[in-house]
């Protein structure tokens, strides 16, 4: 488990990957919104999520093996931290690409949408 947590920390920082356009937004007429992430960002997000998936399976195994509760709780904290890292990376990309683009085009509704999203992330 410790190796999985350590490998998450070695992934490129959000600032290394997020300066690129991320979202194609066409929400005003009801059309589905979609994102377009660079291959580098997408690969980084998928790698992080794969590691998190492995960590969660490890936590399940710890519970099945009756590992000491404090050790399990520490691994849960590591999983939560790793998920927060994915969220921060995606949020930074979203703000620099999608949100900035929509603001430049005069769409101020994106601010309320972003605030709602941030509120959910901070729960």
TrEMBL record:
Q: Where is this region: Disordered?
A: 1-41
One biological process term in Gene Ontology: negative regulation of DNA-templated transcription
| Coiled-coil intervals | none
In terms of CDD domains, this protein maps to: SaCsoR-like_DUF156
Q: Which GO terms describe its molecular function?
A: DNA binding; metal ion binding
Q: Where is the composition biased (Basic and acidic residues)?
A: 22-41
Q: Which domain of life is it from?
A: Bacteria
Pfam families noted in UniProt: Trns_repr_metal
Name listed for the protein in its UniProt record:
Transcriptional regulator
Q: Which organism is it from?
A: Paenibacillus sambharensis
């Amino acid at each position: 488990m410790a190796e999985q947590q350590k490998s998450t920390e070695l992934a490129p920082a959000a600032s290394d990957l997020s300066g690129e356009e991320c979202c194609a937004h066409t929400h005003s007429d009801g059309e589905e919104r979609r994102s377009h992430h660079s291959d580098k960002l997408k690969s980084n997000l998928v790698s992080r999520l794969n590691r998190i998936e492995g960590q969660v399976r490890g936590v399940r195994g710890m519970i099945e093996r009756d590992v000491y509760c404090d050790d399990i709780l520490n691994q849960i904290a590591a999983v939560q931290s790793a998920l927060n890292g994915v969220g921060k990376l995606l949020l930074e990309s979203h703000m620099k690409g999608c949100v900035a683009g929509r603001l430049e085009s005069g769409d101020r509704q994106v601010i309320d949408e972003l605030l709602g999203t941030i509120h959910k992330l901070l729960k």
